[in-house]
Amino acid sequence: MRPLPSCRRKTRGISLGLFALCLAAARCLQSQGVSLYIPQPTINATVKQDILFSVEYSCHGVPTIEWTYTSNWGMQKIVEWKPGTQANISQSHQDRVCTFDNGSIQLFSVGVRDSGYYIVTVTERPGSSQFGTIVLHVSEILYEDLHLVAVFLAFLTAVAAVLISLLWVCNKCAYKFQRKRRHKLKESTTEEIELQDVEC
């Protein structure tokens, strides 16, 4: 007994569907040869703080890791390296960046100018890469400003206290000087009166 033509078409359709599904899965797996995870996509920091841009990646081979920085001042490359090899750090970030084999970097002594977008790209081979972004906000340290104001106010208070003490001492000295002068004046007046009495 021969199978019906409609059954053949159905079987062929299912086969083609499965083949297409397998192709899509293979493409999906191929494009996901690199996976990247960023635990902290936004970082708030203060001036002079050391910041860790933490990432985790997984891939089959040894990838190339690249970090770039984008802000109002433009875009610039920070560092590029392969795990286990020496990092190629840009001149603008020399002595300010430390790299780790897991793809993370540490930026030392940040300033307000370091605020911006930090983009990490992990490339295993051409066509197989992943990228992620970390946003950094760096603000001035307000409590240090308040500390300076407090120190300045304490200094002004101390100066005012010294000046008030000096004024008090000067006032006491002036009072004693006037008292002695009055006493001498009184004595001289008394002597004059006695002399006048004697002459009379």
From TrEMBL:
<dbReference type="InterPro" id="IPR024303">
    <property type="entry name" value="NK_rcpt_2B4_Ig_dom"/>
</dbReference>
<dbReference type="InterPro" id="IPR015631">
    <property type="entry name" value="CD2/SLAM_rcpt"/>
</dbReference>
<keyword id="KW-0472">Membrane</keyword>
<keyword id="KW-0217">Developmental protein</keyword>
<feature type="transmembrane region" description="Helical">
    <location>
        <begin position="146"/>
        <end position="170"/>
    </location>
</feature>
<dbReference type="Pfam" id="PF11465">
    <property type="entry name" value="Receptor_2B4"/>
</dbReference>
<keyword id="KW-1003">Cell membrane</keyword>
<keyword id="KW-0966">Cell projection</keyword>
<dbReference type="InterPro" id="IPR013783">
    <property type="entry name" value="Ig-like_fold"/>
</dbReference>
<protein>
    <recommendedName>
        <fullName>V-set and transmembrane domain-containing protein 5</fullName>
    </recommendedName>
</protein>
<dbReference type="GO" id="GO:0030425">
    <property type="term" value="C:dendrite"/>
</dbReference>
<dbReference type="GO" id="GO:0021517">
    <property type="term" value="P:ventral spinal cord development"/>
</dbReference>
<feature type="domain" description="Immunoglobulin">
    <location>
        <begin position="40"/>
        <end position="139"/>
    </location>
</feature>
<dbReference type="InterPro" id="IPR003599">
    <property type="entry name" value="Ig_sub"/>
</dbReference>
<dbReference type="GO" id="GO:1904891">
    <property type="term" value="P:positive regulation of excitatory synapse assembly"/>
</dbReference>
<comment type="function">
    <text>Cell adhesion-like membrane protein of the central nervous system (CNS) which modulates both the position and complexity of central neurons by altering their membrane morphology and dynamics. Involved in the formation of neuronal dendrites and protrusions including dendritic filopodia. In synaptogenesis, regulates synapse formation by altering dendritic spine morphology and actin distribution. Promotes formation of unstable neuronal spines such as thin and branched types. Regulates neuronal morphogenesis and migration during cortical development in the brain.</text>
</comment>
<keyword id="KW-0732">Signal</keyword>
<dbReference type="GO" id="GO:0051260">
    <property type="term" value="P:protein homooligomerization"/>
</dbReference>
<dbReference type="InterPro" id="IPR036179">
    <property type="entry name" value="Ig-like_dom_sf"/>
</dbReference>
<dbReference type="GO" id="GO:0030424">
    <property type="term" value="C:axon"/>
</dbReference>
<keyword id="KW-0812">Transmembrane</keyword>
<feature type="signal peptide">
    <location>
        <begin position="1"/>
        <end position="26"/>
    </location>
</feature>
<dbReference type="GO" id="GO:0005886">
    <property type="term" value="C:plasma membrane"/>
</dbReference>
<keyword id="KW-0325">Glycoprotein</keyword>
<keyword id="KW-1133">Transmembrane helix</keyword>
<comment type="subunit">
    <text>Can homooligomerize through cis interactions within the same cell membrane.</text>
</comment>
<dbReference type="GO" id="GO:0046847">
    <property type="term" value="P:filopodium assembly"/>
</dbReference>
